[in-house]
Amino acid sequence: MATTLPSTAPRAHTAETAHRPVDYVWAIARISLGWVFLWAFLDKTFGWGFATPAAKAWIAGGSPTTGFLKGTGENALGGVFSALAGQVWVDWLFMAGLLGVGLALTLGVGTRIAAVSGGLMLVLMWAAELPLTTNPFMDDHIVYTIVLAGLALSGAGATLGLGNLPIVRRHPILK
Question: Mind telling me which residue stretches traverse the membrane in this protein (predicted)?
Fold first, then answer.
């Protein structure tokens, strides 16, 4: 007599698929992490005074990468990262990444691409801070990267997002 174990593979979500409670947990994690990226973009762009003062806002001529990257000069890879600080192309790539990852995660479309892109951004920020001051290797950048991998693997865009749109179902790159 054969025993059948439940599949641990991600389910293919459709509009008719009933969502499990864990699907909502992943969806809330996706939206929350999307907001973290979107908020960073908005605050750096407009200088709403949370992490970026108005005088240093991107629209006021400030560089969104200078503050963080210039502060890495004494770190293990600081020479590499501090040389990138304030370069226009780095500012544009960084801000486009924050906006793109934030929107994709919040909306639930392009979650896989957002997970890879966001994970790369986070790992680079983590590397810029090495050696860490509060832990030998683990910090929020790595934890967020792990969550992004879970979001991509769980199909999190289909719950509370636009991942069930017909165009997304037809084009797997948009999942």
Answer: 24-42, 92-122, 142-165
